Amino acid sequence: MCVIDEIIGADFVKVRCSDGASRSCRIPGRFRRRTWLSEGDVVLVQPWDFQPNKGDILHKYSKDEIRRLVNMGVVPREFIEGGT
After folding, report:
1. How far is CA 62 from CA 8, 10, 32, 54, in A?
2. DSSP letter assigned to residue 48
3. Is the pLDDT of residue 37 over 50?
4. Is 53 exposed, middle or buried (0-12, 13-18, 19+ CB in 10 A)?
5. Percent of the chain with pLDDT over 70
6. How does 14-43 read in b/e, with b if 16+ C-beta sit within 10 Å?
7. How much is the pTM?
8. How many domains does the chain have?
9. What is the domain range of residue 32?
10. Paired strand residues for 7
């Protein structure tokens, strides 16, 4: 689980992941055309096997999904709000 920190451009974003890593992630074509991504959004990222500091975005969490994950204790509220 990661939070988008910066939109780099050319279909790439900089994300801060829950494992402490900062990755440059690619936005797949299915998200470019259908889902609007912005800074502060919570996304699911799959790191690349051959370059662990890069990855692909798999899913964008909705506000209801984020609230449910925080209430279940899966992700701390401080991570989503900006702190690590």
Report:
1. 22, 24, 17, 23
2. -
3. yes
4. exposed
5. 98
6. ebbbbeeeebebbbeeebeeeeebeeebbb
7. 0.85
8. 1
9. 2-81
10. 13
